[in-house]
Every structure is written in C-alpha cells, then in structure tokens.
Amino acid sequence: MNEKDKEKNLNENELEAVEQETKEVVSSDEAAEVAAVEPVEATDNDKHHDVEELDEDKQQPASVQPGPEAAAPAAKNNGKAWMYISIGLAVVLLFTIVKMPFGGGSSETVGSVNGVAITKDQLYDEMAKVGGEQTLENMIQDELIKQEADKAGIVVGDAEVDKEIESIKKRFPSEAEFEGALQQAGMTLDDLKKQTPMQLRIRKILEPQAKVTDADVKTYFEENKAQFDEPEQVKASHILVATKEEADAIEKQLKEGADFATLAKEKSTDPGSKDQGGDLGFFGKGQMDPAFEEAAFKLKKDEISAPIQTQYGFHIIKAIDHKAAKAATLDEKKADIKEQLIAQKVQELSPTWLEDLKTKSQITNTLKDAAAGDEAQEPAANNAASNSSTNAK
C-alpha cells in the first residue's frame, strides 16, 4: 500500500472517530447513531478511527488504480485538509440521525403482503420503537438551539449557508473527496445544506466563549509547521492502456499532432480520469506507483513521456504544471489555524452547554419516559417469573 492509500485510510479513520465525540453532544444518556465526518483531536498526529476497510482497488490513486483520488494534492497535506473540513462538519451532522418520512395518525396503506395492508400508523409505530426516542431527542435539541439563537438575535440566511458550504468544499483536496466524505456520512449535498444552519447557530452562540490568543496560534503553528509546508507537486494527465503495442500506437499519434485530451477520452482505460482528458490534478511524491511518479516528475511542462509500464498497464504521461516545495509561514496560516482552534473549542464547549440548556428548560419526551418505564418493569417481571419458578419447585 502506498502513501496515498495510507492517507486515504487515515482520512477514513478520522471520519468515524468523531462518532464518539458527537454522541456526547447529542445525548449524555444515550449515544446517537450518527455518521459524522470529524476528527476530535487538535493535531494531525492524533488521527484515529475505526472503519471497515474499503476494497483495496478503490483506494488506489489513478496512476496505480484508475480513479478520481489521484487528483488530490500531496498526502502530507491531505490530513490537514481533512482536519479542517471535519471541524466544519462537526455539529452539522449531529442531527442527521433517523429520518422519519411518515407521521402518525394515518391509516393510509404503504405496503401489503398477500392482500394484508401495512399502514402508515404501523410503520410509524415500528420506526418509533427503533429510532423514535433518539430522533425526538434531537428534535428537542434542535428547537432548544433555535430558541437560544432567537434570544441572541442570531439569524442565519441562505447566503451565509452557501458561503459556509463553499468554505467546506475548499478545505478538501478535491471535489471527489468532498463528495466521498458526504457519501461516507450517508448524506447528500442537500442534506448538508439543510443541516448547516444549525451548525452556524451553535458556532455563533458559543464562539464568544472560545478564546484563542495569538500565542495559541503561534504555538500550534510551531508544533505542526511541517504539516503546513507544501511539498513539490506535479500536475499531470495520462492515458492508460493494457498493452505496449497500444501505447506505442498512441505515442505515434501524439507525435503526429493528435490532441492528448481527445485521445485520453477515446483510448484510456482509467475511468477516474479519462472523461477529464486524463487529468490527474496535482500530486506529490509518494502517492503514485514509483515508476509512474519518477517519470512524471522528470517531465518538463507540456512534455510527453514514452510509454511507462506499471502493474496496471502502460501509461503515457503529459506534464501540465509544476509546483516547487514551499515552506509555510505563520502569517499565511494564522487565520486558518485560529479558525480551527476556535472550532475545536466550540466543539469542546457544546456538550456541557447543551446539557445545561436542557436542565434549565421544560422538556417533555414521552418516548423516553415510556422507554424508562419499560426498563423499570422488566426487572420486576423477571423477579416474578423467578419466584413463580421457585414456588413451583
């Protein structure tokens, strides 16, 4: 497994690690079934997460295994990008638990088995048993937060939501990885837009309490400077085919003046890049197949390679652009780091703040009360059964 694969797994590890943190915010009594996209810790060194490992082929970059992942920048920067985006999504996903499409009070048929109807009422009752208590709990939290935002005069408009979504997207190495994170969380872009206002309300309410000094920012930068540095990168396109004969024929066409992007769309077997004319985007060293990477970094801008063989076939590579390695400066990263540290403090404050808010409010949750009653009755029933058995003896 190459460095790109390791980073992909690490990013996925960050995705599910947030579940534990968000569950604490959702409920101190019962863990929420949340698919959140967020790391909990403050540094890239503390990345963690338990996710079922994806199919190995799906994790390979395009030059190793064709796919959109190859458009991502250097692996060392991906972790930081994911950290920023994760923080951005932290509270957004708190309330994406169970979507109940039907309300009660209806005898409308939603299904049937051999002529026997299943009604909306029946469906609602079963869904309420499975996830109703937690869903209602989250609806209660939603209303609590809205009320607090109203008291503070906080208004979240569509323009602000759109700006936040764009900010989140920019923190991902590529559009494909942003979409992949949404899929991992079981969400669509529309879902994210619907949940974003709640995130913004919580942030605006708690940000005044999240104090971050210039000294905090400087310390964080100095402790993590290497992860802010930008390594050397190359932007390349490629055409992948199965045999040397095919590659030689394509090389001949290119030398005769054929358009590279057009041939890539027609001939390449890489489904992740062929529709983009073979474009792989920028990538750093350690992300691609060694032979592919060595050839790509040696090419000058607009230069095309001879056929390069890897275990996936034969590649013809075109260098599109180069980026020299660049050391990060505090001035460049100060705003991003401060935003990140504030977001982390908001996240830390959220569970206590929400519990305190609940304590001060008059809340009714009949599903939770019913579940508590059932739990209380269960030991009594077990004791009665045990006594009956003893007496029988």
How does this model look, in words?
The strands form 2 sheets. A 4-stranded antiparallel β-sheet has the order 4-3-6-5. Strands 1-2 form a two-stranded antiparallel sheet. It is an alpha+beta fold and 393 residues long. It is extended. 54% of the residues lie in helices and 10% in strands.
Give the tags.
393 residues, alpha+beta, 13 helices, extended, disordered N terminus
Low-confidence stretches: 1-104
Distance between the termini: 65 Å
Summarize the amount of helix as a percent range. 40-55%
Instruction: Characterize the biggest β-sheet.
Output: 4 strands, antiparallel
- Topology, number of strands: 6
Sketch the topology as an H/E string, one letter per element.
HHEEHHHHHHEHHEHEEHH
Q: Which class of secondary structure composition applies to the elements? A: alpha+beta
Strand arrangement, largest sheet? 4-3-6-5
Question: Given the structure, what is the number of helices?
Answer: 13
Mind sketching the topology for me?
Layout: H1 3-26, H2 75-89, E1 109-113, E2 116-119, H3 120-151, H4 158-170, H5 175-184, H6 189-206, H7 214-223, H8 225-228, E3 233-241, H9 244-255, H10 260-267, E4 279-284, H11 290-298, E5 308-310, E6 313-323, H12 330-360, H13 366-392
Antiparallel strand pairs: 1-2, 3-4, 3-6, 5-6
Helix pairs in contact: 1-2, 2-4, 3-6, 3-13, 4-6, 7-12
Summarize the structure.
The chain is of the alpha+beta class.
